[in-house]
Amino acid sequence: IGESVSGMILFDETLRQKTDDGTPFPKALEAAGILPGIKVDMGAKDLALHEGEKVTEGLDGLRERLAEYAQLGAKFAKWRAVIAIKGDDLPSSGCVHANAHALARYAALCQEAGLVPMVEPEILIDGDHSLEKCYEICARTWQKLFEEMKDQDVAMEGAILKTSMVLAGKDASEQTDPQTVAEQTVKCLKENVPAELAGVVFLSGGQTDANSTIHLDLMNKLAEEKPWPLTFSYGRSIQRPALDHWAANQDDVAGAQAKLAHRAKMNGLAAKGEWSEDAENA
Q1: By the 8 A CB rule, do 27 and 18 touch?
Q2: pLDDT of amino acid 223
Q3: Which residue of 56, 81, 118, 140 has the smallest Cβ count within 10 Å?
Q4: Average pLDDT for the chain
Q5: Do the beta carbons of residue 66 and residue 28 sit within 8 Å?
């Protein structure tokens, strides 16, 4: 899998675990050519006085936790915020600001500790909003996030954006074709994300395995020059085929691993604009 994946995000528990031969997981990953990362937020909680909205917590004690994670071998960290689109009123400016500020303070603490921050403002795909509405909320969220990060003196060239694609809600009556999703996502990024940022990675966010690969591939096939690499940080869209196989064939570890490696390889090709149906079915 190290041929297709350059980093893996671990939980606190996993970062401390070892392989059967006693090798700490971070060292095992590095031996496979994969950088170990760590999820450091404490989850999204109800935002006071903002019904239906969340703010991610976990800043208290984060400096000390990051120092320990760096000693344990982590090279980067991740913090996820949740932004929901509901009607004309949500997300509120208060929700966007609270989460952007927390992400910025987290990012500054990461860089202080020598870790690369991955900032993840996830625009949820739930709902019946249009692609145009998603574009508007992505633009608002990214603008506020990078404004807050600059206020905290975060070095953009040492940070990564993990975010959603510009998509219509999964309950929308009109779903957008993949080429338009790719074009509108890149357009929104170019208008609202600093060119000096180290990179942009996408979450699959409820998409099908196939669509998350196709959208990423089409973005990287666009002729226009992009100032940052566009790649993937998928969970379910890589793991689901392996988990489904393993659930039905619990003793077939090699078969599940092959499913995982194939999905990773397909997304690795998409990150270079080299995916094709022939490669998928090979």
Answers
A1: no
A2: 77
A3: 140
A4: 96
A5: no
pTM attached to this predicted model: 0.95
Q: Which residues pair with 163 in a beta bridge?
A: 202
Measured N-to-C along each axis, helices 253-270 and 209-221 cross at an angle, to the nearest 10 degrees, of: 30
Nearest to 48 by CA among 98, 87, 113, 4: 98
Tokens standing for residue 6? 């350059």
The residue whose two tokens read 């952007």 is 100
Cα dihedral across residues 7, 182, 260, 10: positive or negative: positive
Nearest to 183 by CA among 135, 128, 120: 135
Contact between 208 and 214 (Cβ < 8 Å): no
Residue 168 in contact with residue 129, Cβ under 8 Å? Answer: yes
- Integer CA distances (angstroms), 13 to 28, 61, 113, in order: 15, 17, 20
Q: What are phi and psi of 90, to 5 degrees?
A: -115, 140
Contact yes or no for 228/238 (Cβ under 8 A): no
DSSP 8-state symbol, 9: E
